[in-house]
């Protein structure tokens, strides 16, 4: 599903109006009806059926006014409170306000701080507050009277439904413009906005429901706005059904170079995730002295012990053996628990030069690349990098706070610059492709912020790549499945006690949930 910013949404609205001749009031009518539908669902669980709709003077307010009419028609007690000068109301909203007045709906303006205490009382007493103050048109920090009204909304215990986006959240990036409505539900119109899904704004949305308001789908499909939301349907289309007449050779050979003294666990988690993702065969390169540990735990994998010059880590003496096994494999992943050694850079350089298969780089492989990203240019095959924000900061020299403010753009620029698929991990993981597309993942939970969960993701990407899934698709499906497995683990165990191994254990069920087998 496409994700847009305010500007792109406006373009699509305009296209619907100008190229297809759909008048703005019709779009507004659909928006108001979609909102009404959701309010009716919420009211079904509610004793108190009174609704207060707080409107701004833009089209978001207009959507609220349309909802007021439909709720009034159905016999619900509705109050409409418009913040600011009603003379400045948008044209389509005015048409709808005029109808409301003729229907004698209780409609008043809030023009002074003096009006706020009375409004606060109404907001506390009603059953549902509808937030129609700002939508995609929010363009500056929220101050003065509107700020007071939002504070009043947030002070109540009343159920709050926001139209399109919680007022105060900037649609283009999820920035909070000083203050924002804390919604229980957000009825997103036509397409999710970046601010609905990126933090901090995403935290204000509550439950999200996306509703069609009649913008022609072909216009949306033609839009070249690059951001997409990863959905279950998309992942289902990526994961092939297994043909009956197949054997392990059909599901690929994965090769993992991971682990060092003290960090064999990282290698194990990655390997288990590769196997649980359905790869046909797995080889793992491991320093000789750690081989026995791996053999005991990883029954299904083949270990390839490496002679070690420096005990417990992979180094330049291992290059020949690594390249040889790589040449017999369908994908190679390097980095989880490899340890930070200077020699790893040289190992990577050799892998990059020789590889004709997809390469997955994580953890210490990424650390080895920091300040030496230019060696990425040696890669002739596809590469998938999986940094968390800290690793991304080391890779790019951009401070963590700045990355967090601008995750999509920074991920995209890196992917394009170095011609790699970049998975920027964290709450709302971003997958960016070198051809300029971005995919945002919304599965997963803070229980996954635990040692080793990244190693599991590396294993899933690698396992899917082994099976010949196209790299960008493997990355998309992996982050989604990783999150679903984490959500399943959290549902069973809670977020506190969840550990990375639980994600691996839930992975088969997550895949089954999507594929059906
Ligand atoms: N034809 C359309 O464009 C449609 C728009 N729709 C709705 O309209 C919304 C967008 O409407 P608009 O573009 O009118 O914008 P909004 O309704 O989001 O509000 C913008 C208004 O608020 C003012 N404003 C912005 N930031 C402010 C701040 N911090 N403090 C005080 N005033 C501020 C602006 O100057 C403008 O007057 C969407 O989110 C959606 O809900 C839907 O009705 C569907 C059709
Ligand atoms: N709050 C969260 N919401 C969703 N996913 C999360 C959250 N916190 C962490 N994760 C996921 O868990 C994984 C953590 O990876 P990482 O930080 O590399 O851990 P490690 O290095 O210990 O393996 C990432 O895939 C990340 O997206
Ligand atoms: K709103």
UniProtKB/TrEMBL annotation:
One of its GO terms (molecular function) is NAD(P)HX epimerase activity. K(+) binds at residues 60, 131, 167. Keywords: ATP-binding, Isomerase, Lyase, Metal-binding, Multifunctional enzyme, NAD, NADP, Nucleotide-binding, Potassium. GO terms for biological process: metabolite repair; nicotinamide nucleotide metabolic process. Residues 37-87 form the Rhodanese domain. InterPro entries: Carbohydrate_kinase_pred_CS, CARKD, Nnr, Rhodanese-like_dom, Ribokinase-like, YjeF_N_dom, YjeF_N_dom_sf. Residues 231-514 form the YjeF C-terminal domain. AMP binds at residues 425-429, 454. (6S)-NADPHX binds at residues 59-63, 135-141, 164, 266, 337, 388, 455. The keyword Kinase does not apply. Its cofactor is Mg(2+); K(+). Pfam families: Carb_kinase, YjeF_N. Residues 9-221 form the YjeF N-terminal domain. Its EC number is 4.2.1.136, 5.1.99.6. Binds 1 potassium ion per subunit. It catalyses: (6S)-NADHX + ADP = AMP + phosphate + NADH + H(+); (6R)-NADHX = (6S)-NADHX; (6S)-NADPHX + ADP = AMP + phosphate + NADPH + H(+); (6R)-NADPHX = (6S)-NADPHX. Catalyzes the epimerization of the S- and R-forms of NAD(P)HX, a damaged form of NAD(P)H that is a result of enzymatic or heat-dependent hydration. This is a prerequisite for the S-specific NAD(P)H-hydrate dehydratase to allow the repair of both epimers of NAD(P)HX. In the N-terminal section; belongs to the NnrE/AIBP family. Homotetramer. NCBIfam families: yjeF_cterm, yjeF_nterm. This is Bifunctional NAD(P)H-hydrate repair enzyme. It comes from Thermotalea metallivorans. The lineage of its organism: Bacteria, Bacillati, Bacillota, Clostridia, Peptostreptococcales.
